[in-house]
Write a structure and sequence with these properties.
alpha/beta, Rossmann fold, 5 strands, globular
């Protein structure tokens, strides 16, 4: 299908309803990407998968001191949040793969995603299993999950939680799909209060 310059913007685009956001939060190696893939394969309509790791991978590489890198890292995360909000504001449904390892990340999402229907999903997995996955995969920084483990779920409020150690990615995705069908999200409104 080709789109010529003479085509008009479709009615309701982008001023129509905002897209839904499924925000997957869990540590490194918790299974977020596998669950996101399953969701994209099974949800109705056109969904996009945006992952914070993608944004870190597309940043130019150079040698940074820790002091130089911290503001670059933070700007990358802040830009990621705004890219997600932009996609959803234009009416796109988005599955987001993220790690709320610091309070400022969640605080920024609460601000930037205001007015968007955000289904906040907790991806749980035990620390021994996370460490096993890090070792087995061979492409993960060993110890990263252990650093993130006490932080990612500290806010304690979700629309739905899944356990990627006891459930397959397909089962986790089914639980999330059921929550979408059950009604509008509430976790972000509760966290804002």
């Amino acid at each position: 299908m080709s789109i010529s310059a003479t085509h008009e913007l479709l009615p309701g685009t982008p001023a129509g309803r905002p897209g839904r956001v499924i925000l997957l939060n869990g540590t490194s190696s918790s299974g977020k990407s596998s669950i996101a893939k399953e969701l994209l394969d099974t949800l109705d309509g056109a969904w996009f998968h945006l992952a914070i790791d993608q944004f870190h991978r597309i940043r130019g590489r150079r040698e940074w001191t820790e002091e130089e890198f911290l503001p670059v890292f933070q700007r990358t995360v802040l830009g990621f949040h705004r890219a997600v909000a932009g996609m959803a504001s234009a009416g796109n449904d988005v599955v987001v793969d993220h790690i709320m390892g610091e309070r400022w990340r969640l605080a920024d999402c609460l601000t930037v995603f205001d007015g968007l229907p955000v289904y906040f999903v907790g991806i749980n997995c035990s620390l021994p299993e996370l460490e096993r996955r890090e070792r087995e995969r061979g492409n993960r920084t060993i110890g990263r999950a252990a650093l993130q483990f006490p932080l990612v779920h500290q806010h304690g409020v979700y629309d739905v939680e899944v356990d990627s150690e006891r459930q397959t990615p397909a089962e986790c995705a089914a639980t999330i799909r059921d929550r979408l069908s059950a009604g509008p999200p509430t976790a972000f409104d509760e966290l804002r209060r």
